[in-house]
Amino acid sequence: MATVEASSHTPTPLLKDELDIVIPTIRNLDFLEMWRPFFEPYHLIIVQDGDPSKTIKVPDGFDYELYNRNDINRILGPKASCISFKDSACRCFGYMVSKKKYIFTIDDDCFVAKDPSGKLINALEQHIKNLLSPSTPHFFNTLYDPFRDGADFVRGYPFTLREGVKTAVSHGLWLNIPDYDAPTQLVKPRERNTRYVDAVLTIPKGTLFPMCGMNLAFDRELIGPAMYFGLMGDGQPIGRYDDMWAGWCIKVICDHLGLGVKTGLPYIWHSKASNPFVNLRKEYKGIFWQEEIIPFFQSAVLPKDCTSVQKCYLELSNQVKEKLSQVDPYFDKLADAMVTWIEAWNELNPDGASAKLPNGNA
Amino acid sequence: MATVEASSHTPTPLLKDELDIVIPTIRNLDFLEMWRPFFEPYHLIIVQDGDPSKTIKVPDGFDYELYNRNDINRILGPKASCISFKDSACRCFGYMVSKKKYIFTIDDDCFVAKDPSGKLINALEQHIKNLLSPSTPHFFNTLYDPFRDGADFVRGYPFTLREGVKTAVSHGLWLNIPDYDAPTQLVKPRERNTRYVDAVLTIPKGTLFPMCGMNLAFDRELIGPAMYFGLMGDGQPIGRYDDMWAGWCIKVICDHLGLGVKTGLPYIWHSKASNPFVNLRKEYKGIFWQEEIIPFFQSAVLPKDCTSVQKCYLELSNQVKEKLSQVDPYFDKLADAMVTWIEAWNELNPDGASAKLPNGNA
C-alpha cells in the first residue's frame, strides 16, 4: 500500500523549501563534503557550541545560517538559560529558529552509509518518505511499514486502522559505531554494527524507545515544541541524555495526540566512538535516574484538554516537577527550563507553528 | 549481548528430544523432501484434515505419528468438538498430544527460503535461537533483538530491564507469497514479498499483532494451553482466523504473565497463494468482526489471581462469552469450545505442562 508520496513510481518530493538541516558542532564542517549531493539543495542551521570566538568553516556552496552562544544569548535574552552549553543538546535552538515544516538533524561525525548493494544511502530522502507516509501505532504489522513499496497490511490487520495516523518523527539508525552507553562501550570496545536491517516500523502506542539525536527527522509543525533537548553539559550534573529526554517526552505526547513515531531506515555511517570514560562521567547519574524516569513516563497520562503540543509539554513539565524532583533537585530546574523553552518557542513562533491541532484532535 | 544459547561461539542446541514439528495437511507430504536435512532429526506430528479414509504419504526416513479425524474423535471423545474439521486449525490437536517442551508448526506449502547470500535458511534453528534467548517487551530496542550476536541494548535502555523475560512465542515470516487477506489478494494479485529483513524483535507489551500459523514456534510449557486455534471450517461461519484468534489470546496472556513474543526471522518460502475468492468467503464475517474483536482484546484485563495459562485462558473465555457473544452467537459457541479445549488439554496433560508458573509470577 504505497501512498502517492512514498511510491517509487512517483519521485519523493524533496521538500527543498520546507526542510532545514540542523547541525550542532564545535569544529569545521568538513563532513559536509560527503553529504554535498544530498544536502546542498537545503538550508542548514548550524548551532556552534562552545567558544563563540572560534570560527567554524563551512565548505563553499552550502546555504546556511550559523548561531554561536552570543547569538543565542542575544536572541533569547534571559530565556537562553534553557539552551544547553558545551553539549550537543544546544541543537534544539536550531529547531526553534527554523521557520520550516520539517527538520533533519545530524551529528558532524556521521557520514553517508552504503546499503548492502554498495549504493550510497540518501538518508534525507528516506526520512522524508518516512515522514510523508502514515504511521500505524495501534496494531503491529508483521511485514513492517505497510506503506512501503512491495508491502502492505497482512491478514488480520483491522481495516479501520489502515488509514494510519500522521507521522511526526522519523528515527534513523547507524552502521559502524552503535549508539551504546558508556558501560557497554567499555565492555565491548570492538563491537560494530554491521547489520543492515531493511525495515521501517512504527513504535507502537504506549511503548517508549531510546531516541538518538544523531540521525533524526521530525515534523516541526506537529511536534516541534516538544523536541527540547533539556539541560545538559556546562553547569549541569548530566550529559548524553538530551535526546533520550526529548524521546520520552515526544513519545508520550505523540501517543496522546494520535501521532506516529517511526524507527529503522535510513542508516548513516557513524565514524567514531566517543571516549567511554568521558561518557561514563556524563552518564553516571543518568544510569540511576533513568530507572525512575522510565516508569514515570510509562505511567504519565495527559488530560483530555491538552490538545496542542505546547499544552501537553507544559503539563508534562508540571508532572516532572511534581514527581521527578524527588529523585534529584535537577529535575526541578529541568521542569522550569521546559517552561522557559515553551515561552521562547512561542516568542520566536508567534503565529503558532504547531498550534494546529494534529490529526484526530481537531 | 549474546546469551550462551544464542551466541555463534556456541552452537545452537538443537533440542532434538524437546521439540515436535506439527503439520496439518490434506495431501502427501512431498514438501518434506526439501526440509529433510533440517527436519529429519525431529519427531513429526501430522494432523490429517478432511476425509480420514484417505492415505497421506510421508517420505521415508521421517519419524512421525499421524492423527486423522477418527483418531481425534477416539482420543478426545465428545471433547473432539473443540477441534476444527476441514480447516488447518485442526493443527492445534497436535500441540495437545505432544509431550515435548517446544512446538514448531509449518504449513505444507512452505519451503526452505534463501537468505540474501543464497544460503538455505534453517528456519527451525532460528526459531530455537529466538525461543532460547530472552524477550524485551517493556522497552523498545532500536537495534532490534539485543541478544543477537553483534547487537546489544542501546544507550538509554534501562539496565533493570536488560535481563528480559522468557520467550514464549517465535513468529516467523514468509518470502514470496505474503500472508494477505482476501481483499488485498484481490487488489494486488501480483505482489510478492522479496524484502528480507534481517531482524528479530519483541512485540512490545500491550501491542497486539496478527499471528500467522504458517511458520510458528512456541514453548509449549509456557504458553501451550493458550495456543487454541478456535472453531473454523466445517459447520462454522468463518475461516482463516484460527491463527489470528490464537495470536490475540496468547498475546494478552503473555503480557499478563510477563512472557515475550518475538517476530521476524526466520523466513520460509511460501509457494502458492490460496484462492482469494474462496478466502473471501471464509473471511467475510471476520472482516467485520475483527473491528470489535481487536478493541475487546486491547482492553482485556486479567485479574491477578490468573497465575497459570489455563486460568488466564478460562478467564478469557468468560470475557469472550460476556462481551463478544453480543457481536454474534458464534462467540458463545467459541467461548464454550475454549473451555472444552482446556479440559481436553488437562486430560491429555495430567501432570500439568504449563502449570509451572512463568517467570515473574512464581
From TrEMBL, chains A, B:
The keyword Isomerase appears for this protein: yes
Catalyses which reaction(s): UDP-beta-L-arabinofuranose = UDP-beta-L-arabinopyranose
Glycosylated position list: 155
UniProt keyword Isomerase, yes or no: yes
Keywords attached to this entry: Cell wall biogenesis/degradation, Glycoprotein, Golgi apparatus, Isomerase
Gene Ontology terms, MF aspect: UDP-arabinopyranose mutase activity
Main subcellular location: Golgi
Parts of the chain that traverse the membrane: none
Main EC class the enzyme belongs to: isomerase
Site location (Required for activity): 155, 162
UniProt cross-references to InterPro entries, sorted A to Z: Nucleotide-diphossugar_trans, RGP, RGP_fam
Listed GO biological process terms: cell wall organization; plant-type cell wall organization or biogenesis; UDP-L-arabinose metabolic process
GO cellular component, one term: Golgi apparatus
EC nos: 5.4.99.30
Family of the protein in this entry: Belongs to the RGP family.
Function, in words: Probable UDP-L-arabinose mutase involved in the biosynthesis of cell wall non-cellulosic polysaccharides.
Protein name: UDP-arabinopyranose mutase
Organism name: Carya illinoinensis
